[in-house]
Amino acid sequence: MRTQVAIIGGGPSGLLLSQLLHLRGISSVVLERKTKDYVLGRIRAGVLEQGLVRLMEEANVAGRMHREGFVHDGTLVAYGDEMFHVDFKAHTGSGVMLYGQTELTRDLYEAREKAGGELIFNVEDVEIAGANTDCPQVHYRVGDRIHQLNCDFVAGCDGFHGVSRRTIPTDQKREYEKVYPFGWLGILSETPPVNDELIYSNSERGFALCSMRNANLSRYYIQCSLSDRPEDWTDHAFWDELKRRIPREQAEAIVMGPSIEKSIAPLRSFVCEPMRWGRLFLCGDAAHIVPPTGAKGLNTAASDVQYLYTGLRRFYEDGDMEGLDSYSAKALARVWKAERFSWWFSSLMHRYPDQSMFDHKMQIAELEFLRSSDAAQKAMAENYVGLPY
Ligand code: FAD
Ligand code: DHB
Questions:
Q1: Residues in domain FAD-binding (predicted)?
Q2: How far is the CA of 97 from the centre of ligand 2 (A)?
């Protein structure tokens, strides 16, 4: 089989790239290791920057997002029983869109399927060959049949544990990593959210986040130990802990109910440089990971997709390699800024196992500075709504 762009990974990066290319007449095949139901069963991001909203519009898949998503013009930041508002709209002129990654992925699958897009599920043993030549190939197996996909370019959209980054020889890449000494325990519950906007809370017992998916679907997270397992936490224990970590007034207002999903995510900062090797381009979590505080993961994946899509268009429409040649440098320049913001916000909001009282006082002083300073709030708002592409 032959295609112009072989896309490894049918998560949001791979699907969005495939849909955008399709609308410009550029063919692609998406190879996904899992089933569609499995991909749609993963509960992940919920906050979309304007850049991603615009890309969804350009991909002709924004209808349901605009009907069902919620625009948030700011967020609340709490510490102990104190709480203040950061107004994104006032500081930057824009807000963010609350719309689940699951729904965005569902919309993209639907659009690809409607257009007869080539999506292959349950692929195993994916191998990329000849990435540093003009005719790369992707080998893979479905059941007991081995296949070969010939292509012009390979887009490695296969997440942190995928095969694409590993294909780049060790002496051709450099990896930077920070692993945080805690995780996030998240639940989804069919209850009305405690507040119209998100609440990020620094408490003496650890971080908590009150988020949502819609008017009757809440998403809550608490910082947990890396050794915890979701089954160690009963719903009762989760609600009890969450309530102890947010200001009293909000704790009293929380509507509790059974969790319909419960999972733990470790926190990591990671960047692989460069994001290209020959005709293989890494995109999204395949190249970089941020800790979830500040909601930058999916949004950074989206800016990669935008740069790669633009580079591929220039190649196919004008025969110009410049966009592809500058892809890695452009993407990384934005990635590092998102890494910085996520690292800063994580450091400000969590309890570290080795944290001294001095370190805690520094967090509180910084939160009080953020509360009182227009300039500090503007800097936070600019990063939160998303730096320009
Ligand atoms: P993925 O979603 O990981 O998709 C990669 C796909 O490739 C997967 O479907 C996988 O099955 C497939 N694959 C892997 N290996 C292979 C292989 N060898 N062959 C074929 N296919 C393969 N980000 C935000 O922006 N905002 C948020 O609010 C936010 N909240 C988050 C909350 C949590 C709890 C977590 C865990 C993450 C959150 N993120 C958030 C991060 C966001 O979910 C990721 O950045 C996003 O999923 C990246 O998309 P991706 O397509 O690059 O990778
Ligand atoms: C969500 C996740 C985040 O990491 C974040 O910063 C805000 C919201 C969420 O899943 O709703």
A1: 2-342
A2: 11
> Rounded to whole angstroms, how far apart are CA atoms 14 and 50?
19
For the question of residue 262 being annotated catalytic, the response is no
Domain extent at residue 365? 180-267+351-385
Please enumerate in sequence order all residues whose Cβ is within 8 A of that of 344, keeping only pairs 6 or more positions apart, or say none: none
Query: How many domains, in total, are found in the chain?
Result: 2
In short, whether 294's Cβ falls inside 6 Å of ligand 1 is: no
Q: Catalytic pick from 296, 307, 316, 327? A: 296
56, 101, 187, 282: which to mutate for ligand 1, most atoms within 8 A of CB? 101
Whether 17 and 28 share a structural domain: yes
pLDDT band of 81, cuts 50, 70, 90 = very high
| In a shared domain, residues 230 and 362 | yes
- Tell me, yes or no, whether 89 lies in a domain: no
Nearest by Cα to 297 from 347, 261, 348, 338: 338
Q: Is the pTM of this model over 0.95?
A: yes
With a 6 Å cutoff on the Cβ, whether 219 touches ligand 2 is: yes
Q: Rounded to the nearest whole angstrom, what is the distance from the C-alpha of residue 170 to the centroid of ligand 2?
A: 33
